[in-house]
Design goal:
2 domains, 31% helix, 5-stranded mixed sheet, single chain, 8-stranded mixed sheet, Rossmann fold
Length: 418
């Protein structure tokens, strides 16, 4: 099959990056009142999640240093629900891959799955909290506020969700997602988080916002009593900064997917798929006809959650999947469609030649293509030549003048430009 020529394009998103992240963490925390409820010598549990947050190692290190400067005794723990194959060792390994160890953080890293029960919410949801964290004198959460891949709401992914699902570990994650099947995930997250906050164990959190370039763009210490209110405002701000694809596409090529990129491997609001694999459910996002994902990312731990959102993939990706952790993740989240296996072929060329004729275009020359590294990095991409006229009038897109054939190696696989 004759595939089109492609040109390189750069999207000019607003750059909100903080020049010195470490200094900004120190400035923000020193101006906060997070330590005012604790006595000197108190043990502080610092909860950290499992997403690929830029500068997370630096942010955690400076957060630990802040508590030490207040003459407290901090330790770090994974606030991850069922991630890391729902094992203490797996969750500690995730932190280590992000550069968070006892040596780099400057304090102990305590990873366990034991939980303390906190009773039930008004809806009858049984609530749990990481036992090691609960037995400390106070809990602080460090996490990014961003849109959620499963739903759209005023509260999505951030400190409030970490207070519920992250702190609940595997036992809590199972409970909460089961109730979400009936009540909706946003209602469950907010209800459980309010119940945990009422316990008085949460000091607050350090909210992290990123811009479209995945830069650390805002850091805000938030006391527990205003966490929900501030999260609504910060989510609206984070959403206004998010990147997006520049046009509708018949075929989207994605180099890599992975749990550290998105909770569903690929951001559903970029590829315009629901977690139940419904096509184009988000009216404000570009329409995507077919999704071809080439491989798992280096830091995915071979968790294949989200593969069910693709229309086609490679044999090499399927063969890399750790089905134990993938099944556990899907069963815990109750998003079973996320791990349905799409058709797969030995080479990238076979994948493209299989799906290009399925998009409803009678003339193959009319099929539009886009190619990205992953759904978190959208500033640089390749577009098929038949999209040049559509994007050339956009002042926020810089289109390369040259167009070239897709770079296939002798093995029939693409050679990524990213």
């Amino acid at each position: 099959m004759r595939l089109p020529h492609f040109f390189f394009a750069r999207q000019k998103f607003a750059d909100h990056g903080i020049p010195d992240v470490a200094a900004e963490v120190r400035r923000q925390l020193c101006g906060s009142c997070l330590s005012s409820r604790l006595n000197v010598g108190s043990r502080v549990a610092i909860g950290v999640g499992s997403r690929g947050i830029r500068n997370i190692g630096v942010i955690v290190r400076e957060t630990v240093a802040y508590w030490k400067s207040q003459q407290m005794r901090p330790f770090v723990f994974p606030a991850m629900g069922s991630h890391g194959a729902a094992t203490a060792e797996g969750q500690a390994e995730i932190l280590a891959r992000f550069g968070i160890t006892e040596a780099t953080a400057g304090c102990p890293v305590v990873s366990c799955l034991d939980v303390a029960p906190l009773g039930c919410t008004a809806e009858g949801i049984e609530v749990f909290v990481d036992r090691a964290a609960y037995e400390s004198d106070g809990i602080m959460l460090v996490g990014r506020i961003k849109r959620h891949t499963d739903f759209t709401g005023a509260i999505e992914s951030g400190l409030v969700k970490m207070t519920a699902i992250g702190l609940g570990k595997f036992a809590g994650a199972q409970q909460y997602h089961a109730h979400a099947y009936r009540l909706g995930l946003e209602q469950v997250i907010v209800s459980v988080a309010r119940h945990v906050l009422a316990s008085g164990k949460i000091l607050g959190g350090l909210a992290i916002l990123e811009d479209a370039y995945h830069n650390t763009a805002k850091l805000e210490p938030i006391p527990a009593e205003v966490m929900e209110c501030r999260e609504r405002e910060n989510l609206a701000l984070a959403n206004s900064w998010m990147g997006h694809l520049p046009a509708d596409l018949d075929v989207l090529i994605v180099d890599e997917m992975g749990k550290e990129i998105s909770g569903t491997g690929m951001d559903t609001k970029v590829i315009n798929r629901s977690v139940h694999a419904h096509y184009n459910p988000f009216p404000d996002a570009p329409r995507i006809g077919r999704v071809f994902v080439r491989d798992l990312s280096e830091f995915s731990s071979n968790n294949g959650i989200g593969i069910g959102l693709a229309d086609v993939t490679t044999d090499r990706l399927i063969n890399r999947i750790d089905w134990v952790s993938t099944r556990r993740n899907a069963l815990t989240s109750t998003s079973l469609a996320d791990i349905r296996i799409p058709m797969h072929f030995a080479t990238d060329r076979e994948c493209l030649e299989a799906i290009a004729p399925t998009v409803g275009k009678m003339d193959p020359a009319d099929v539009t293509f886009g190619w990205i590294r992953n759904t978190q990095e959208l500033s640089e991409l390749l577009l098929s030549e038949n999209l040049r006229q559509e994007v050339s009038g956009n002042p926020l897109i810089e289109a390369g003048s040259d167009a070239c054939e897709l770079p296939f190696g002798e093995d029939g696989n693409l050679v990524s430009p990213f």
